[in-house]
Amino acid sequence: MKIHPPNIPAPRPSLLRKIWRLYGRTFALILAMIAGALVPEAQSAAGLLPYLLMGMLFFAFLDITVTRESFHASMLLIFLANLAIPLAFFFLLRPIDPVVALIGFLTAIAPTATATPVIVSYLRGRVDYVLPCVLLTNIGIALILPFLLPWVAGTTVRITTGEILPPVLEVMFVPLGLAFLLRKCFPAAQRFLLPGKVLSFPIWLAMLFIVTSRASAFLQSSAEFSASQLLWIGFISLLICVANFGAGALIGGRDFRREGSQVLGQKNNSFTVWIALTYLHPLAALGPTFYVLYHNLYNGLQLYTAEREATLKGEKADSSGAL
Question: Disulfide check for 56: which of 61, 139, 203, 282 has CB 3.0–4.6 Å away?
Answer without folding.
Answer: 203
